[in-house]
Amino acid sequence: MKFIKPIGGEFWFTPEIFNKNSKNFKNIKATFLSGGQSALRAVLNDLEIGKGDIILMPNHLCPTILYSLHEKNIKYIFYKINKDLSIDLKSLEEKISNKNIKAIYIINYFGFYHNRKTIEFLKKMREKYNFKIIEDAVQMLWFKNNNFIGDYVFNSYRKFVPIDGSILLSKNNRIYKETKDKYYELINKGRSEKKLYIDYEIGNEENYLNTFKEAEKFYYKRKEAYGMNIISKKLLSSLDIEYIKKKRQENYKYLYEKIKKIEFIETIFDINKINDNIPLGFPVYIKNNNRDKIRKLLMNNKIYCPIHWNINNEIGKNILTIPIDQRYDFKDMDRVIFSFLKSSN
């Protein structure tokens, strides 16, 4: 059987993403953590939330974000996210003015900042009502404070590369102990299995997919905030962020010009919004409630498009993320386009 390179899914190690001269963590003052869940737990530990306090959460988010709030019995209320993934400011203002708000949780979707109007509104409301802003920059690749407004800002490197870790920016930098648990063992085993399959056709997809699935189970069994592993820190410090940025931006722009011509696809972030951003993927809406059908047809061609996120709202029912990361080139993007066109027949 002819080998077909899978597009999407968990990352595997490739030498191109590293530059031994990089020192990404040089002069960075932050709390170094094992991943996004640990970062959020660290934020909640620092906030010291009282019995009557409430956190405002966007109504479009990864459901696993709420796990940490449930663990601490923290009350939360949802505010509305618009179809273009901007914040519905009217919805947010209504919630702020009527409740005892301790913090507002915002998400920078797919590597893009919120617009200037939203940023100024959030700053104004924070000054008036004295709440904290938790800025979820998990879908962005960064090492230093760029244009963030959050009192707490955190990321998750495994969304972009095959390395676990997160940095949390805040006024209070703390040290958390490392852990090498079953998740750590399994996730790296899965990455090795996938590399052997992709590069040498050793093993099969089922092997590494099962390993990743098992790893994920152990990831969500964690109940504490853990520090960044020393090996992960060294690898992340050596990432060639300019190479990763260049590849992702090139693939995004190339795909945009072709994908916008397909009738049943609606793009979300215009090409002129890329600027200096590093996109997580290429998010689109599939029209006519055909998202799941199209996604299945793509999977048959070994193109694995994740859903961010599969929840019961207008966004969650139709959104699909096309992989455009540093593992792929224009030839791979053409394969994606061809598969979309083929699925429409």
Automatic annotation (TrEMBL):
InterPro entries named among the record's database cross-references: DegT/StrS_aminotransferase (IPR000653), PyrdxlP-dep_Trfase (IPR015424), PyrdxlP-dep_Trfase_major (IPR015421), PyrdxlP-dep_Trfase_small (IPR015422)
Pfam families: DegT_DnrJ_EryC1 (PF01041)
An annotated Gene Ontology molecular function: pyridoxal phosphate binding
BP GO annotations: polysaccharide biosynthetic process
Claim: Ubl conjugation is one of the keywords in the record: no
TM spans (from-to): none
Signal peptide residues on this chain, from the entry's feature table: none
Keyword terms of this UniProt record: Pyridoxal phosphate
Gene3D superfamilies, alphabetized: Aspartate Aminotransferase, domain 1, Type I PLP-dependent aspartate aminotransferase-like (Major domain)
Protein family: Belongs to the DegT/DnrJ/EryC1 family.
Name assigned to this protein: dTDP-4-amino-4,6-dideoxygalactose transaminase
Organism whose genome encodes this protein: Tepidibacter formicigenes DSM 15518
Organism classification: Bacteria, Bacillati, Bacillota, Clostridia, Peptostreptococcales
